[in-house]
Amino acid sequence: MLKWFKTRVKNHRRADKLYGVIVTQARSGHIYTSLGVPDTPAGRFEIVVLHLFLVMERLRSEPEIGHVLPRLVVERFVADVDDSLRELGTGDLAVPKKVRRAAAGLYERATAYRAAISVGDEKALAQLLASYVFMAEGADWRSDALASYTIKAMAKLARRDVREINSGKIAFPDAATLREDLQ
Predict the structure, then answer these.
(1) Minimal CA–CA distance to 32: which of 181, 176, 180?
(2) Residue spans of alpha helices (H) in 61-171
(3) In angstroms, rounded to a whole number, what is the distance separating the alpha carbons of residues 76 and 82?
(4) Which of 80, 102, 120, 149 is deepest in the core (most CB within 10 A)?
(5) Model pLDDT for residues 125-153, shown as the tens digit of each residue
(6) Is residue 134 a contact partner of residue 142, using CB atoms and an 8 Å limit?
(7) Measured distance CA(109)–CA(111) in Å, rounded
(8) Angle, CA 167 vertex, CA 68 and CA 148 arms, to 5°
C-alpha cells in the first residue's frame, strides 16, 4: 500500500514538473514578439495547448511510458485552466462549462495537428495554426513561422531520450532566432 502511494506521489510530482516546463516555454516572450502570437489570454491558451500537444505526442510514441504520466499532465492542464478562470473572475457556475470547453479544445486541436503532421503537410499545419492561434482565415508569415517552430520542436523532442522528458528536461527551439531564419 505504501509503495503504491509513493509511486502515485512521484508520478504527480513528475507531471507537475513537466507541465511547469510546458507553461514556462509557452510564456516565453519570444513566442509573442518574434512569432507574432497575440499576448492575450486566448493566445496564451493556444500556445500552452500547442506545447502540451508536442510533449504528449512525444510521450505517446513511447509505449513504456504508458498512459499515467500523459493523463496526469492533462489533468494538471485542466486544473490550471480552472485556476486561471477563477483568477480572471469567472463565476463559479460558469467555470465547469468553460473548463470542459478548454479540454475539448485541447483534444480537437491535438487531433487536427496530429492529422496535419502525420502526413507531413506543413502548409495544412500553418492553416490550422492561423485558424486556432491567430483566428485568421488564411496563413501568413506568423502561422508559417509557428508551423516551422512546431515541426522543429517535434524533431527536437523526438531526438530527446524519453527518460529526460519524463524528468522534465525538455528543450524547445529558440523562437527568437526562428523569425530571422524566415526573413
Answers:
(1) 176
(2) 68-87, 95-118, 122-132, 141-159, 162-166
(3) 10
(4) 149
(5) 999 999 999 998 887 999 999 999 999 99
(6) yes
(7) 5
(8) 90
Question: Where do the domains of the chain lie?
Answer: 13-182
178 has pLDDT over 70: no
pTM score of the predicted model: 0.90
Phi, psi of 152 (to 5 degrees): -65, -40
C-alpha cell at 51: 506545447
pLDDT at 179: 57
% helix / strand / coil in the chain, to the nearest 5?
75, 0, 25
CA-wise closest residue to 132 among 66, 52, 43: 43
pLDDT higher than 80, residue 76: yes
Phi, psi of 31 (to 5 degrees): -65, -35
Rounded distance between C-alpha atoms, residue 77 and residue 69, angstroms: 12
Reading the block at residue 52, the C-alpha cell is 502540451
